[in-house]
């Protein structure tokens, strides 16, 4: 069995019973999780399918994380402190807590938390049974409404809708993005000024016409038909739907479409709003930038290799003369050449990722040795900081050792760079269910919650950091792509002034676990 909780308690020849129990848990319509109190931060080691459906997260994004990630920014809840006391004291708890799905949707969770003790009376696990009570909470809130205020609210709502209609109409006309409103029959009801300007049409040529008949059929686009006739009728909004089309009069356009059903009261019900962003020029600029990075990186690599070779020759010649000052100057030059070479390598990695040519070569290797090699490299480069390696996995996994070591070096380098006043960095290794987990923690500057959302974006740098520390904002982007290419998950937990903890999990294959058991 793959899950850490179940594999740890099969020593009494009850494997068949536990297989049945696990199957029952997986089939349950109630969300169920199990956390390991023996591991740092009490991570989730098991979740059933109902919990995945309830939260919108996949199992690979759940395992290894503390339950608090479901509260996102909504941390100041009394229920959280009640849960914290229960975990700290090993007690049962029943709470109603606000959680958020992966897409940010709020849902109310009725959580039954129970501790599990082993035969020695030691607290080992917690079981959480979860119910989505959002509908019940909504009903309770509606019952609290005073009937005497209802008529007044209806009147206020009607007046507010009239005001909003005028307000939205002014926004609709002035917004700098092409907007179109369709009827359920896909007849164009109205378009804004930007649409007319971008697609070189008039209101008379557009409004009141069937969408696919506009401009002698130039809007009869297969991708748009699929969006409007297959995707949108499911009542799900369409977000960032990319459409490329060659218009007869304005040429080829690359468009980003967002579509929503408008369900306002009265005559506006079931109308469809389509926002069209022309990203033709933007995408062309991005492509030029990527092409430039690729060409520049390749062109710099060859002369830099030659310079590196000459510096090594110079160092050997100087060593014979015994000139210590010249030797030190050459040594420093070599260090800066190495830094430049690493930067060029990162730029090449970004270029390969963007072009889809980034390759991962997987071979079996010792995960703990890989981490230790990265730690040793940083100890030599930054002797002023001490890196504490806590725990071990004892696992030999199948992956790209060089690229995963690159991830470790990058995370460790960042931890050292952004905590200049602290002298210690912690690396925590553990096996959580059928995942290996690594956390790199520092007590440095920290990152605000708003900026954590973009920290893994290409070329993004945290505002207060980019003013004090040099960099291009590509290291974490590359790390994220490497982990994704291994089927893993990389995330950050941080508070300004209290440091950061970057963690990632990698799934262990069946062969990994079998090799470890030998």
Report a brief summary of the structure.
The chain is α+β, with helices and mostly antiparallel strands.
Going by CATH, the architecture of the largest domain would be: 2-Layer Sandwich
Number of helices: 18
The CATH topology of the largest domain is Heat Shock Protein 90
Radius of gyration: 29 Å
CATH level-4 homologous superfamily of the largest domain = Histidine kinase-like ATPase, C-terminal domain
| Class computed from helices, strands and strand pairing | alpha+beta
Q: How would you write the strand order of the largest sheet?
A: 2-1-5-4-3
Coarse morphology:
globular
Main sheet specs: 5 strands, antiparallel
Termini gap: 16 Å
Instruction: State the domain count.
Output: 4
**Percentage of residues in DSSP E strands:** 15-25%
Low-confidence stretches: 1-11
How many beta-strand segments? 17
Determine the fraction of residues in helical runs and give it as a percent range: 40-55%
CATH C-level of the largest domain = Alpha Beta
Global mean pLDDT: 81
Oligomer: single chain
Protein name: histidine kinase
Domain Histidine kinase: 295-510
Domain PAS: 17-90
GO molecular function: phosphorelay response regulator activity; phosphorelay sensor kinase activity; protein kinase activator activity
């Amino acid at each position: 069995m793959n899950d850490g909780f179940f594999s740890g308690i099969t020593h009494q020849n009850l494997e068949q019973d536990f297989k049945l129990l696990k199957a029952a848990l997986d089939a349950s319509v109630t969300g169920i999780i199990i956390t390991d109190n023996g591991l740092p931060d009490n991570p989730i080691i098991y979740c059933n399918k109902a919990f995945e459906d309830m939260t919108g997260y996949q199992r690979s994004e759940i395992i290894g994380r503390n339950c608090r990630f479901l509260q996102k920014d909504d941390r100041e809840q009394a229920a959280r402190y009640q849960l914290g006391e229960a975990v700290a004291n090993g007690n049962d708890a029943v709470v109603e807590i606000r959680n958020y799905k992966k897409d940010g949707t709020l849902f109310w969770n009725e959580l039954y938390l129970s501790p599990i003790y082993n035969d020695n009376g030691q607290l080992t696990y917690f079981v959480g049974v979860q119910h989505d009570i959002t509908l019940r909470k909504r009903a309770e809130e509606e019952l609290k409404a005073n009937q005497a205020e209802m008529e007044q609210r209806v009147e206020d709502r009607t007046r507010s809708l009239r005001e909003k209609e005028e307000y939205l109409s002014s926004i609709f006309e002035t917004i700098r993005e092409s907007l179109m409103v369709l009827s359920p029959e896909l007849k164009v009801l109205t378009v804004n000024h930007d649409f007319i300007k971008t697609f070189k049409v008039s209101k008379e040529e557009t409004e009141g016409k069937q969408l696919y008949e506009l401009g002698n059929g130039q809007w009869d686009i297969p991708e748009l038909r699929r969006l409007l006739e297959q995707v949108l009728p499911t009542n799900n909004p369409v977000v960032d739907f990319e459409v490329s089309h060659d218009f007869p009069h304005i040429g080829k356009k690359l468009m980003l479409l967002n579509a929503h059903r408008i369900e306002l009261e009265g005559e506006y019900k079931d109308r469809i709003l389509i926002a069209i962003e022309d990203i033709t020029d933007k995408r062309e600029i991005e492509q030029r930038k990527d092409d430039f990075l690729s060409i520049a990186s390749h062109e710099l690599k060859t002369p830099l290799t030659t310079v590196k070779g000459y510096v090594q020759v110079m160092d050997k010649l100087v060593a014979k003369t015994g000139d210590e000052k010249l030797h030190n100057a050459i040594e420093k030059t070599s260090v800066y050449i190495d830094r430049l070479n690493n930067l060029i390598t990162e730029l090449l990695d970004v270029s390969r990722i963007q072009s889809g040519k980034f390759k991962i070569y997987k071979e079996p290797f010792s995960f703990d040795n890989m981490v230790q090699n990265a730690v040793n490299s940083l100890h030599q480069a930054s002797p002023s900081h001490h890196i504490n390696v806590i725990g071990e996995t004892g696992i030999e996994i199948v992956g790209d050792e060089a690229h995963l070591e690159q991830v470790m070096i990058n995370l460790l380098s960042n931890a050292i760079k952004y905590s200049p006043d602290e002298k210690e960095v912690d690396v925590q290794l553990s096996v959580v269910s059928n995942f290996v987990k690594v956390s790199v923690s520092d007590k440095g500057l920290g990152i605000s919650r708003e900026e954590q959302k973009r920290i893994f974006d290409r070329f993004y740098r945290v505002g207060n950091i980019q003013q004090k520390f040099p960099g291009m904002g590509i290291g974490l982007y590359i790390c994220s792509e490497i982990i994704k290419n291994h089927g893993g998950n990389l995330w950050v937990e941080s508070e300004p002034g209290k440091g950061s903890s970057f963690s990632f999990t990698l799934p262990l294959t069946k062969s990994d676990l079998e090799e470890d058991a030998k």
